[in-house]
Amino acid sequence: MDDLITRPDHSLIAQSRRCEQAKVDMNGDGFGLGWYGERPIPGLYRDTQPAWGDENLRSLTHQIKSNLFFAHVRASTGTATSRANCHPFAVGRYLFMHNGQIGGYEQVRRPVEALIDDHHYQFRVGTTDSEALFLAMLSHGLAEDPYRSMQTVLNKVRQIMLAAGVKSALRVTAALSDGERLYALRYSSDQVVPSLYYRLCNRSLTVVSEPLDTGEAQWHAVPTGHFLSFGGIAAPSFMPLDIPELADRAFVPA
User: Where in the numbering of this chain does the Glutamine amidotransferase type-2 domain appear (predicted)?
Assistant: First the structure.
């Protein structure tokens, strides 16, 4: 894991100290790793201290090999700094992480959580909007159709925000995996779109919020308002998100 998390010039640990394209400069409100190994259920390691100060993180990433893993550094958008609020989130074989926010979340938290069915609400252990999005997606057929599930939930959340008179934006870049396929999406209801990039090299796909280095030109921006799917056989495929606001706005990368 350290080939991506600690060694590059603009590694994830470097980004925890200073981001170049994010809304905030520093991501010091915790971090997390999620990885798939020999078992169908992913491993998980999360903590609340900044990623740059955790010696265990450096040791683990130096030793663990995984064909599919998630890593995240957190900047809180208002919820508590706690282990339960650190990404990635895991339920069964699924991993999920998110950058962005549901604008005015405190105004719409109850109706957003109402999108989570009774079965999946038992997995609600934190207080973030990110975990709520994940559990709502699981409640809306994520196992059967990730593309439809993710855009359905985004549509419903946006409708809830508009009904509540929330003027702040819904901004989402997210990554999801079931251990076999990787999915990601990039969306914002305004023109400040969280960044998301991908690189395909020797059938290996890397998806990042910011390029890990400046010396290589093989990073490509995930198109705004699109869903990415990758199964490790061919190049990633992209599908446009069916969200009405997308047709009415001219988006530019953040």
Answer: 1-254
